[in-house]
Amino acid sequence: MTTPPQGQAQAQRPTATSFIELRARSRAQALLDQGTFHELLGPFERLESPWLEMQDIIPESDDGVIVARGRLAGEEAVILAIEGAFQGGAIGEVAGEKFISSLELAKQDCERGTPVRPVLLLETGGVRLQEGLLGEAAMARIHANIVALRAHVPVVGIISGMIGCFGGMSITAGLCSYLISTREGRLGLNGPAVVEEEAGIAEFDSHDPPLIWSIMGGTQREGSGFVDLLVDDDIEVIRQALLAVFARGKPGHYRSAQVQAYRSLLATFDLTNQLDPEVAHVLLKSGREV
Fold first, then answer.
1. pTM (2 d.p.)
2. Which residues, 6 or more positions from 232, have their beta carbon under 8 angstroms from its beta carbon?
3. How many CA atoms lie within 13 A of 175 on its CB side?
4. pLDDT tens-digit readout, 18-51
5. Cα–Cα distance list, 60 to 22, 57, 93, 102 (Å)
6. What confidence tier does 12 reach under pLDDT thresholds 50, 70, 90?
7. Could you mention a single GO BP entry for this protein (predicted)?
8. What are the φ and ψ backbone dihedral angles of 180, each rounded to 5 degrees?
9. pLDDT tens by residue, 223-255
């Protein structure tokens, strides 16, 4: 996994300001150093899901995941960008394999003495239901590879919007060394519609945006300790935040290792009534390890 010479770069960084308004490929281009973007296993490789057409769903030739190699502040990097406009960013067999292989190769580079900065652009509803257990199996391997890779270098996730990060990929976000989010970003194991369907509208109204963002939004998640940096929706602001967390090096502790602390904290919550977002914010912030 080596970056091609400057002359072989496929595209220049976009000049737009909003990161959210960009598609996945352009987001990767925007974060990498000027002129270093190079896509691996792109659409011309025709790596399509073999399962979607059987269900009358038109596949995409990159299966909704862009793998980009390049440099970040001169350092080797790989960006895995999920295209939320395709199947809601859901991960199936092919998309999952692109994630898994890229993480494995980055780990091999690190073991050979060539550190690679991994960045995950998480715009996803989780596992692709149309591919069932194939997506679930891919998710488990993604998680295992992130844990293995973060022993060598920080693994950084970015949640920008508009879909957010839910389902199995929210676990992926929780395993990242650092997590960056915009205020527009959302993070949760179950999305609003799923919670409403399972527990009823009295528990959670999925058509109430203020309620959704007060519970799952970037501001709440950062204040509760599940997001490390809250940033504005601006390409350069997000890029600088990304460089800043890589400059910190590997964190001293991981959220995913604080299982007992979170279990003890959750045991103190009174769930007989709907929990007020501000109360949840205070309880989570006071109870987490630092």
1. 0.88
2. 182, 183
3. 22
4. 999 999 999 999 999 999 999 998 888 888 888 8
5. 18, 10, 13, 19
6. low
7. carbohydrate metabolic process
8. -115, 140
9. 888 999 999 999 999 999 999 999 999 999 898
Alpha-carbon radius of gyration of the chain: 19
The CA–CA distances, whole Å, from 193 to 142, 200, 201, 203, 212 equal 25, 10, 9, 11, 10
Query: Are the CB atoms for 123 and 196 separated by under 8 Å?
Result: no
Q: With respect to residue 263, please indicate whether it lies within any of the assigned structural domains.
A: no
* Greatest extent of the chain over all pairs of C-alpha atoms, in Å: 62
- Cβ distance 84 to 72 under 8 Å? no
* 267 part of a folded domain: no
Q: Which domain holds residue 43?
A: 6-187+226-256
Q: CA 219, 148, 143, 76 torsion: positive or negative? A: positive
Q: Is 87 left (phi over 0), alpha (psi -120 to 50) or beta?
A: left
Distance of CA 203 to the CA centre of its chain: 27
DSSP string, 55-99: GT----TTTTEEEEEEEETTEEEEEEEE-TTSGGG-B-HHHHHHH
Domain containing residue 169: CATH number: 3.90.226.10
What does the DSSP assignment read for 143-196?
Answer: HHHHHHHTTTS--EEEE-SSS-B-THHHHHHHHSSEEEEETT-BB-SS-HHHHH
CB atoms within 10 A of CB 1: 16
Q: Is residue 1 part of a domain?
A: no
Per the structure, the count of domains in the chain is: 1
Element (H, E) at 211: helix 209-216
Tell me the HSE value of 216 on the side-chain side, using a 13 A CA sphere: 28
60, part of any domain: yes
